[in-house]
Amino acid sequence: MGPSSNRAFVDPTRGTPARGSGGSGERAIATTIYYPTTIAPSEQNPEPRVATGPWPLIVFAHGYAIDAAAYAPLLEDLASGGYVVVAPDFPGNSTAYPGGAVRSDLLQQPGDMSFVITKLIEASQTPGLLSGAIDPNAVGSSGHSDGGVAAAASAYNTCCIDPRIKASVILTGGSFGFDGQWFPPGTPPVMFVHGTADEINPYSASTSMFARAQSPKYLLTVQGGSHLGVYVTPPWEPQVARAMVAFFDRYLKGDPTAADRLATAGNEPGYSLQRG
Predict the structure, then answer these.
(1) Strands laid side by side in the 217-222 sheet
(2) Range 20-28 contact pairs with CB under 8 angstroms and sequence separation of 24 or more
């Protein structure tokens, strides 16, 4: 596993549903932070150090009844591309907590994402591991499955838009469950990723979002790709990570070479990239 740090953030303004028993009037959000490093751990310095920033920030939303750690290969690759990546475990449906997942808590997840963005920016402005590490003007989001729905809502639905999010990659997501207008004018660049053999969420979920989204927009199709394996196992995950890094480089870092890198990554055998 690459360098990461674990934090717990508590939002006292919103509650957590009962998961078999209990429930709470606040939301305690366990969070894993991945970051680029230049100095590896050693006996003299047991903790790796964040490479000199500031770096763009990406907040990642896991799917339903799974935890953020399941996506570690992808999140590590994004961090290695020059990003601070924050992955909250959502209090209502992550398997990192005891009890059964509560799918209706999806409606709280855009708020969790915005809350964690705020906490990470605050951490970058105070002494500590992340001091000076985050560019508050270069925030992106991503998410998988139900987490892709939450990420889409946080950037592309009038119910929940966080204006700090400047670009987003939606992995096998969808546009449902939230009141408000989807993909209104002025929303940021987006890339949808979906496997054609997804056994849970139909490929049409992403093609329909691509049709409705504002430009610039991309659709990365993974021929024969499954629902989860595309994002966590070879040979798919490294290729998807390369495309995601190129997309975020283009729209969060303003890298002029990134468009060609995205086109290359998105058109390898077994992949196709459509732009609109």
Answers:
(1) 4-11, 27-34, 84-89, 55-61, 134-144, 165-171, 190-195, 217-222, 271-275
(2) 20/98, 20/99, 20/100, 21/99, 22/99, 24/91, 27/91, 27/108, 27/112, 27/115, 28/91
Per-residue pLDDT, 181:
97
- CA–CA dist 122, 103 (Å, integer): 30
What CATH number should be reported for the domain whose range is 4-275? 3.40.50.1820
Q: What is the mean pLDDT of residues 192-208?
A: 97
Q: Hey, what are 196's tokens?
A: 């054609």
Place of tokens 């920033």: 53
Using an 8 Å Cβ cutoff, are 225 and 196 in contact? yes
pLDDT tens string 222-268: 999 999 999 999 999 999 999 999 999 999 999 999 999 999 999 99
What is residue 146's three-state secondary structure?
helix
Give the SS3 label for residue 274. strand
From 98, 144, 130, 101, select the one nearest 33 (Cα to Cα): 130
